[in-house]
């Protein structure tokens, strides 16, 4: 892997809690900080395109993500994305040939103790380097084909269809 291209769209992974408002908002992308703290031995670039909860991502947003990734020279792309509509975005990205694209996110914000963000990012980084061209989802310690997975909202995890 020459360089990893990271595209961020928001989602829970980047959420921060505002005490004065008693709600969550999507903050700066967390993945660069996480990769730096972990001391990764590869070059990467971060392209922040959206700061949205994935329930609010539109078809136009998905097209922007697709066009942005298609325009990059990088063959290896990691996308951080909210979990609720991650599968829908992955299916749109399947039209991009010649790239290995892995979407990941978190069920709890990266800034929270016990978040699954670092684990999911690590799984996604390993997957993007080792899998053939195509689109994949890395969540809950598994690599999923977007056509064969769904988010189980009640159980708060991804599972096979």
From TrEMBL:
* Domain called L-asparaginase N-terminal: residue spans: 4-159
InterPro entries noted in UniProt: Asp/glu_Ase-like_sf (IPR036152), Asparaginase/glutaminase-like (IPR006034), L-asparaginase_N (IPR027474), L-asparaginase_N_sf (IPR037152)
Active-site residue list: 12
Q: Which residues bind substrate?
A: 54, 83-84
Q: Which residues form the signal peptide?
A: none
Q: A GO molecular function for this record?
A: asparaginase activity
Q: State a single Pfam family of this protein.
A: Asparaginase
Q: Quote the protein name from its UniProt record.
A: Asparaginase
Species of the source = Lysobacter arseniciresistens ZS79
């Amino acid at each position: 892997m020459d360089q990893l291209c990271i595209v961020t769209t928001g989602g829970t992974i980047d959420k921060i809690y505002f005490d004065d408002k008693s709600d969550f908002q999507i903050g700066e992308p967390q993945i660069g900080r996480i990769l730096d703290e972990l001391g990764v031995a590869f070059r990467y670039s971060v392209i922040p395109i959206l700061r949205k909860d994935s329930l609010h991502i539109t078809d136009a947003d998905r097209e922007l993500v697709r066009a942005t990734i298609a325009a990059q020279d990088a063959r290896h792309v990691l996308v951080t994305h909210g979990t609720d509509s991650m599968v829908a975005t992955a299916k749109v990205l399947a039209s991009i040939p010649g790239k290995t694209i892995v979407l990941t996110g978190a069920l709890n914000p990266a800034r929270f103790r016990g978040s699954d963000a670092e684990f999911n990012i690590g799984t996604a980084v390993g997957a993007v380097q080792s899998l053939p061209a195509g689109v994949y989802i890395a969540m809950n310690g598994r690599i999923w084909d977007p056509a064969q997975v769904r988010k189980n909202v009640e159980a708060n995890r991804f599972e096979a269809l």
